[in-house]
Design brief:
With 402 residues, the chain is mainly beta. It has 5 helices and 33 strands. Residues 1-26 form the signal peptide.
Length: 402
């Protein structure tokens, strides 16, 4: 569908989670294979870039084939795209369904000979196979695979967001210092889990999910426990998971504690009743949109997560002043969501509307990430002239609304 954006650089406003958990039917054994870590694993950093949806994207090899992958600690099992070159339909067997963000997901399984990245390798085992749409990464370029708990949980995961690299090291190592929080792999859900506190209220368990590009997500019941319903203004946002689109409440929490760390002005997404978190029995998720402001050590074997603040840790999150969340298509923007209580809602904008120019400038190939794309988080009071494709010019006055 094109690149997802809120008309600005790398938005946190549109959440792009990849999490898939809880296979509805038990996977065929054996699944995990034999995982080993090279003696020099600590020196084998793996370079990554962030997808437009804030997920960690890197390269690995599966059965000797190079593939693109996303690091997904919220995934119970690693997952291969049905469209990946390494997928052999003749070896794929039916495996039932899994729970994913947006709904249920058809799931199959395929045996593998080897998987390797950095200092980690796995011999044998099986991998889940499912549809993996490009839209779930926020762009036209999808990935071939998600790397989940089954491959990495026996090691410590050191993510150096500032330098766009990560590595797998032996559990128990402590390569840097920072605030410590509890971390475990849930025996029920088989994903990384921790706890947070908001307003003195403990909220647990929460999934630690590097495959979710949003900051912190709460189930509706956890939001009520946090006591922020009347304390902070709210709006709405849209997210795209493996199983489809979700619309959620969006707010900024004054403070969130994770173990010994207290973070200020944290963006919160709140799922409606019956959302993914409630379905799988958790209170929410900590996503890459939050974690990317820290150097992160995830070591469930040692029972800890370590967070070392980066220079961006105390910066307030960007807030839309337009209320238009858009996707970028050739030569135009398509409105994906109109945020509740926003200037765009007051101006009558609708999902599906298309914009062909902003302040007279067309939507060119270099639009995403450019200064011109940041108009929707511009200064309150500024009037932006938006040219509706085939429908004239509509002025939009920017304002603070949440």
């Amino acid at each position: 569908m094109g690149t997802l954006t809120s008309a600005m650089f790398r938005p946190a406003l549109i959440a792009l989670p990849l999490l898939v958990a809880l296979p509805a039917a038990a996977p065929p054994a054996p699944v995990d294979g034999i995982v080993t870590l090279a003696p020099d694993a600590e020196a084998r950093w793996i370079a990554f870039d962030l997808t437009p949806g804030n997920q960690i994207r890197f390269e690995l090899e599966l059965d000797g084939r190079p593939l693109s992958a996303v690091l997904d600690t919220g995934g119970s099992y690693s997952l291969l795209s049905r469209r990946a070159a390494a997928t052999d339909p003749a070896r794929v067997t039916s495996g039932g369904r899994a729970t994913a963000i947006g709904g249920a997901l058809a799931l199959d399984w395929m045996p593998t000979a080897s998987i390797a990245f950095g200092g980690l390798s796995r011999e044998g085992g099986r991998i889940a196979v499912a549809d993996l749409p490009a839209s779930a990464t926020g762009g036209v370029r999808g990935v071939d695979m998600l790397v989940g708990r089954d491959l990495i949980a026996g090691q410590a995961l050191d993510i150096d967001y500032a330098n766009h690299r990560f590595r797998l090291i032996p559990s128990g190592r402590l390569p840097f210092t920072g605030a410590v929080a509890p971390l475990s792999v849930s025996p029920q859900r088989l994903v990384y889990e921790s706890a947070i506190a908001i307003g003195g209220q403990r909220i647990a368990p929460v999934i630690v999910d590097t495959g979710d590009g949003s900051s912190i997500t709460l189930a509706d019941a956890a939001w009520n426990v946090a006591g922020l319903t009347r304390a902070v203004p709210t709006t709405t946002t849209v997210g795209y998971g493996l199983a489809g689109e979700t619309v959620n409440t969006l707010a900024i929490a004054p403070a969130v504690s994770i173990g010994a760390l207290t973070a200020r002005n944290v963006e919160l997404k709140v799922e409606p009743s019956g959302g993914f978190s409630q379905t799988v029995g958790v209170s929410g998720r900590i996503g890459s949109g939050f974690l990317q402001h820290y150097r992160v050590l995830l070591d469930p074997g040692a029972g800890r997560m370590v967070l070392q603040p980066a220079a961006t840790a105390d910066q307030p999150p960007l807030r839309s002043t337009s209320g238009l969340l858009t996707g970028v298509l050739p030569g135009r923007l398509r409105v994906l969501h109109v945020m509740r209580g926003s200037p765009a809602e007051a101006g009558g904008w609708q999902k599906g509307d298309e914009i062909c120019a902003v302040d007279g400038a067309g939507i060119g190939t270099g639009y995403v990430g450019s200064a011109a794309s940041r108009w929707s988080v511009g200064a309150p009071g500024r009037v932006v002239a938006l040219t509706v494709c085939g429908g004239g010019v509509k002025p939009l006055r920017l304002a603070s609304f949440y």
